[in-house]
Amino acid sequence: MEGNQFTNFWQGVPQGPPDPILGVTDAFKKDTAPNKVNLGVGAYRDENGKPYVLESVLKAEDILHQKRLDKEYLPITGANDFITLASELAYGKDSKPLKEGRVAVAQSISGTGALRIATGFLSQYYNGPKVLYLPDPTWGNHVPLAEGVGLKVQRYRYFDKKTVGLDFAGMKEDIKNAEDGSIILLHACAQNPTGIDPTQEQWKELSELVKSKKHLPLFDMAYQGFASGDIIKDAFAARYFVEQGHQIILCQSFAKNLGLYAERAGTFSMVTSSPEEKERVLSQIKRVIRPLYSSPPVHGAQLVATILGNPDLYEQWLSEVKKMADRIISMREKLYNLLIELKTPGEWGHIKSQIGMFSFTGISPEQVQALADHAHIYMTKDGRISMAGLNEHNIQYFAESLSKAVKGELGTKSSL
Ligand code: LMR
């Protein structure tokens, strides 16, 4: 009898932990409380807390529908019109390396996919130390994206707990002390999770420092337009580095600024020193992509290309990006005022000064847990909140609950 039994192959597979960010959405979905609030995942919500499809995207959908396009495979590196327009958006139409035809660009499965192409390529072809320096803290997914392909992860100081601001001196010191030629990941704007960016002057200093150390800058650009509402201002750091001659790698996502989360549209790009080198690099990029997913999906790229390639839709999109950014900024103002009105212990100026999708509240993991358990408010364990999850209907409730959590009053009888 025993010999006839099927082998159980998976007995040794341990239960994995929930994803630190997407797992918060799962917990939120399971909660049946009517007043629940999800401030976990960085996804824009309108003033009624609903996912938002941009008008420009809806119009692009109509245009595409009329065209009755086919569903043929895209080339391994994606749709040509898309990658041209997307890289012009990131680098600027007048970008020298773009004009000289020495930027290797490939469509990617949004920002994560771009980073995976980058780490995959670097692990095989980078001649310098295979060490990726990440800001502390950073987006959680950066770590497995590097370690999964054998790159070593190191940290540089970024967040100063005391000032709830940028630890610029610590950041510079760590970048300076890194072995020459290390790979330095920089958030192009709207740093995730802190919402704190270097100033333009600080970026200039960083460019000098990175150059003097012969480091390789890798920009993660997931929020162009979302930080200030202005896509050009938000591209400052990456464009400045390129102007200064850095051969940057850039990972671009259209999830947030076009609201195309599930379409997974983005690009990987790399400035090289000549068109000939670009071709060699691209030939290897193709070999990274092909066994991962063969070629990218078409629809999101078509939407982006339709909007970026049509002057009216482009203008409309710019105003929609600004509208989203402005709504978030107004929520920051309101939350700050409420926390002060409620006499919440601590200094809350950072809620207003931080930019982009997130605010790093500075509350403890215990307070985060208390908010979930007793107020049905969900956020990542590090106290990051997605400001886009706040609106006129829930901000008072959130501010009161946060204030109680900070005062240690949540979970007690009188709390809610
Ligand atoms: C986030 O940080 O919440 C977003 O970038 C979504 C994600 O994939 O983690």
From TrEMBL:
CDD domains with a match to the protein in the record: AAT_like
Iron-sulfur recorded as keyword: no
Cofactor list: pyridoxal 5'-phosphate
Catalysed reaction equations from the record: L-aspartate + 2-oxoglutarate = oxaloacetate + L-glutamate
Example GO molecular function: L-aspartate:2-oxoglutarate aminotransferase activity
Enzyme class: transferase
E.C. number(s) listed in UniProt: 2.6.1.1
An annotated GO BP: L-aspartate catabolic process
UniProt GO cellular component terms: mitochondrion
Residue ranges constituting the Aminotransferase class I/classII large domain according to the UniProt record: 35-402
Pfam families linked to this entry: Aminotran_1_2 (PF00155)
Gene3D superfamilies: Aspartate Aminotransferase, domain 1 (3.90.1150.10), Type I PLP-dependent aspartate aminotransferase-like (Major domain) (3.40.640.10)
Swiss-Prot/TrEMBL keywords: Aminotransferase, Pyridoxal phosphate, Transferase
Coiled coil: none
Entry annotated with the keyword Membrane: no
SUBUNIT field: Homodimer.
PANTHER family recorded: ASPARTATE AMINOTRANSFERASE, ASPARTATE AMINOTRANSFERASE, MITOCHONDRIAL
NCBIfam families from the UniProt entry: PRK09257.1
Note: In eukaryotes there are cytoplasmic, mitochondrial and chloroplastic isozymes.
Family membership noted in the UniProt record: Belongs to the class-I pyridoxal-phosphate-dependent aminotransferase family.
Protein name listed in UniProt: Aspartate aminotransferase
Source organism per UniProt: Kwoniella dejecticola CBS 10117
Organism lineage string: Eukaryota, Fungi, Dikarya, Basidiomycota, Agaricomycotina
